[in-house]
Amino acid sequence: MKFVVQEYRLSNGGVRYYLRLEKDGILKGWAVPKGLPEKGERPRLALEVGPYKLSAAGFEGKVAKSKFGPGMMSVWDQGEYRLDSWLENRIIFELFGSRVKGSFALIRFTKAGSHHWLLSRPHTSPSSPQAEPAVTKPDKSPTVPPRPRAPAGRPKVRTKKEYLKEPPAPARPESGSSQSKSETTGDRIHKTGTESEHTKSQGSKALKKRQKKKREKERESYYIRSKKRAKRMSKRRYTKKIHILGLVFIVFVLIIYGLVKLIQYISSLY
Predict the structure, then answer these.
(1) Is residue 187 situated within a structural domain?
(2) Which domain, by its residues, includes 80?
(3) Residue 42 in domain
(4) Domain count of the chain?
(5) pLDDT (tens digit, 9 = 90+) per residue, 148-166?
(6) What is the DSSP string of the chain?
(7) Confidence of residue 249 (pLDDT cuts 50, 70, 90)
């Protein structure tokens, strides 16, 4: 089966490449902007384009209308290719051209879109025999024995109380200075223990004082809030009483006014 790699030189100086493979009597194509990858290079983007007539595989000349703009089309390489597998999302093939030789793989890049593919070069071609495993020679350098590992688990850390409870180490009869040193260390430990207890007691006292002050502030704030609330309630009650008394007075005046008018009307009849 035939393949062709076309070079499309744009009028603005840019270059695009097209890879076309024969399949079912037509040439299926992919636009590869950066060209076919070499061995060891990263995969390159290939955009699937429309089919191409098999008779127009060797077309060379000017192109007036194109997606990338006007330019010149030429055949960069062509020849035969061997197809190893053609699946929906993966195509593996081997090219036998004058410039390009070797195996290639086209893998669909579904995250970018259905027309986006990645063109890569596998490390070993399917037709080439597998490389023999390299034989490593034994190292003649002298072996160093491994270091002994520490036992698993963390060492137990003694507390200060356990350290104080332990009996002092026996004094050596050879030198008298060691006994005096052990006595001084014991005195120091006793002093540090008493100092730590003293600091703990001071800290607890300060904490109690802070808690007491906090409680007193909360009580004061609650008393102030309750006092303000009582004032607001008493003011509302007072205004309510005034409104009621005003209504009663107005009703009383109206009743008296009605009685006076009624008496005047009766006296005018007689």
Answers:
(1) no
(2) 2-120
(3) yes
(4) 1
(5) 565 555 555 566 556 566 6
(6) -EEEEEEEEETTS-EEEEEEEEETTEEEEEEETT----TTPPPEEEEEEEEEEGGGTT--EEESS-SS-SEEEEEEEEEEEEEEEE-SSEEEEEEEESS-EEEEEEEE-TTT-TTEEEEE--SS-SSSPPPPPPPPPPP-SPPPPPPPPPPSSPPPPPPHHHHHHSPPPPPPSS-SHHHHHHHHHHHHHHHHHHHHHHHHHHHHHHHHHHHHHHHHHHHHHHHHHHHHHHHHHHHHHHHHHHHHHHHHHHHHHHHHHHHHHHHHHHHHH-
(7) very high
